[in-house]
Amino acid sequence: MSIIRIIAVTITVLLASSCNGQSTDSETVETTISQNSERYAQYLGNAGVMIRDGETKLLFDPLFEQNFHIYQKVPSSLQGAMMAGLPPYDDVDVLLVSHAHGDHFSADLVLSYMRKNPTVKLVAPKQAVDKLIRVGISETDLATRVTAIDQQTADKAITVQIGSILIEAITIPHSGGQRFADVRNTVYRVHLQNSYQVIHLGDATTQNPPFAEQQTFWDQQSNDLLLTPYWLFKNSQRQANIDTHIRPHRSIGIHVPTALSDLKKRYGNALDEVDLFTKPGETRDLDVLESTTQEK
After folding, report:
1. Where does residue 249 rank: exposed (0-12), middle (13-18), buried (19+ CB within 10 A)?
2. CA–CA–CA angle 208, 212, 215 (5° rounding)
């Protein structure tokens, strides 16, 4: 197997008060990407991830205000860079929202983002879009820039075409059982360049039946990258949702609590070999996986 050079890149984000309405903020984040990487995933906070594939850029669950004193919020400097459309957050194609909970979605922040970035499109469950309507999204933007996903669990996938980007959406129940039975948790599979597929599970349930009911959907594609809440790695029953049904080439855990020591106490060794996003700004080079897999 040939050796792929990996370089550590240190990025310093400096935002003036004019960018985000706050005082100047500076922050250094370290990312590791391949020298020639054109396809990577960057962690933003909680379940928020940016995917870049050449000129294509996606944001999953990037703008929220709640962390319930448990989860990682998007740092103000990083959020300000997104809002201002500063590189690498310039020219984002699509913002995708999994569900309307406060640790995944803020109607006020998403509306502000859309006003400041007038070319970005939004795909979100109807429950989130209804909240955008209440905070004043324009009828023009609603008609031309927003796709509302309105479906039930076990419904067939809804497909959305935005330029060259194909998005498939299904609904998998939110974790927590009856307590969140009314929440529409949308799972996205996004088709990128060269037949590369990324799945974001939102806050998917730990139960197996909803995943089994969508087996035809999982089997239709290669499911290259899975962004999954960390709790699906806890034990073999939960892991079956990944290994038996989705069968991705690569998985990265998201929605990870900030108190990693407490997580270790709860999960023991279950997460020792799991790739988790835990630090905002950290990056995974998605080209490395393809190269190393093909050359073995």
Report:
1. middle
2. 145
CA torsion, ordered 267, 273, 275, 281, to nearest 10 deg = 80
Asked if the 6-295 domain carries CATH number 3.40.50.2000, the reply is no
3-state SS, 105-140, equals: CCHHHHHHHHHHCCCCEEEEEHHHHHHHHHHCCCHH
Task: Tell me the domain boundaries of the chain.
Answer: 6-295
Give 66-121 pLDDT, tens digit per residue. Answer: 999 999 999 999 999 999 999 999 999 999 999 999 999 999 999 999 999 999 99
- Three-state DSSP at 294 gives helix
- Helices assigned H by DSSP within 5-120: 17-20, 76-84, 107-116
Whether 197 has a pLDDT exceeding 90, the answer reads: yes
Q: For 17-59, what is each residue's pLDDT tens digit?
A: 333 333 333 344 554 554 467 899 999 999 999 999 999 999 9
Specify whether the CB–CB gap between 276 and 260 falls below 8 A.
no
Instruction: Give the residue carrying structure tokens 């990324």.
Output: 198
Q: Is the model's pLDDT at 193 over the cut of 60?
A: yes
